[in-house]
Design brief:
single chain, two-stranded antiparallel ribbon, alpha/beta, TIM Barrel
């Protein structure tokens, strides 16, 4: 039996269907019925409709890093297992993915994993301490040449099993988002050797070894295409590409290095019948190029008004965002004002998914998240 969830609201017993053979008994928020309700289970997804710029009854909402350390039920599990074990144990990864959907009534679930997960199959030694640590950073053309493009069924079977279990457990009204890191963002970690504020080594490699850089970015793009294709085949209903470090590049370098690689990923996935979401963090100066990516949805951080983003991207591209994560620490009246501002700025046209402008902070009060979800649904559903 998987660990149950906990919360500060009235609770009752419910069941999440994980497989034909096994069921997970958990405690769920009474005010947010889980998928035991057949009408809820078969309800159309406002998230998927918004991804396609179709009209919705209310603006769908989910938040980046919604499954994670701000939740007490997540911390209870993490107290017993390390991060890598958690990501590589499907039953635990399923439970962690379900927690925010169960607690808050999110309009989408996002797979609990890490953007660095597929690089081990390429031949990269990876550890977490607590962020990613690369044993031998990629600093030469020979190292790039030695990297392989893995078969996900062989290299990350635990990820695909997690997706399969979640595709059974989640209701249609809360579809699963699979994801991967964008080639440039993974490139940053592989060359730098770990996390950094500036990724100076990675950026220097672009200038010093442009040919090897393009080769590495190409291999990463092909790896992510296979990885995301496999997630879709296993049941993911949308796919997201996280380019967390895109904003480190100016428009010229972005267009030369990062953009061709992410476009290669999107082109490689275009035949799939799932929405493709691209999040170029701190990408305000990059959107003129990003609009050529072919993504169905572009994630926007809080530094750029959604109205400006929509003007640049055009009416056929949905936007996702873009509340500043620290607004969740504000008093409720101010938080409500900030939520309303984002909804107003997104405008009345279809194609807006409410999200934060980046991942939720670990010290966020879960009650603030509950308030956010309720507020978005209430205000956007009035019309």
């Amino acid at each position: 039996m998987l660990p149950g969830c906990s919360g500060g609201r009235p609770e009752r017993e419910c069941e999440f269907r994980v497989s034909e053979e096994a069921k997970v008994s958990v405690e769920a928020d009474e005010s947010r019925p889980a998928q035991e309700d057949s009408a809820t289970a078969s309800a159309p997804s406002p998230f998927l409709a918004a991804c396609r710029c179709e009209p919705v009854a209310h603006t769908p909402v989910w938040i980046m890093r919604q499954a994670g350390r701000y939740l007490p039920e997540y911390r209870k599990i993490r107290a017993e297992v390390d991060f890598l074990t958690l990501t590589k144990t499907p039953e635990l990864a399923v439970e962690v993915t379900l927690q925010p959907v169960r607690r808050f009534g999110m309009d989408a679930a996002i797979l609990f994993s890490d953007i660095m997960t597929p690089v081990e199959g390429m031949g990269v030694e990876l550890d977490f301490a607590p962020g990613p640590v690369i044993e031998s950073p990629i600093r030469s053309a020979a190292q790039v040449e030695a990297l392989r493009i893995p078969d996900p069924e062989e290299s990350v079977p635990f990820v695909l099993e997690t997706v399969r279990l979640l595709s059974e457990a989640l209701p249609a009204s809360a579809p699963l988002i699979g994801f991967a890191g964008a080639p440039f963002t993974i490139f940053c970690y592989l060359v730098q050797g770990g996390g950094s504020k500036t990724f100076a080594e990675a950026k220097a490699f672009l200038f010093a070894e442009p040919e090897a850089s393009h080769k590495l970015l190409g291999k990463l793009a092909d790896t992510m295409v296979r990885y995301l294709e496999a997630q879709a085949a296993a049941g993911a209903k949308a796919l997201m590409i996280f380019d967390s470090w895109a904003g480190l590049l100016g428009p010229e370098q972005y267009r030369e290095f990062a953009f061709p690689a992410v476009r290669r990923v999107i082109d490689g996935l275009r035949s799939l019948d799932v929405p493709l979401i691209y999040f170029p963090n701190q990408g305000a100066t990059l959107l003129e190029t990003v609009r050529e990516s072919g993504a169905d949805v572009v994630g926007i951080d809080w530094r750029l008004p959604l109205s400006d983003a929509r003007r640049i991207l055009g009416p056929d591209t949905a936007v996702q965002g873009n509340l500043d994560p620290t607004a969740l620490f504000a008093p409720r009246d101010e938080l409500a004002r900030q939520i309303d501002r984002v909804l107003e700025d997104a405008g009345p046209a279809p194609g807006h998914i409410f999200n934060l402008g980046h991942g939720i902070e670990r010290t966020t009060d879960p009650d603030a998240v509950a308030f956010l979800v309720d507020r978005v649904h209430e205000v956007s559903g009035r019309g």
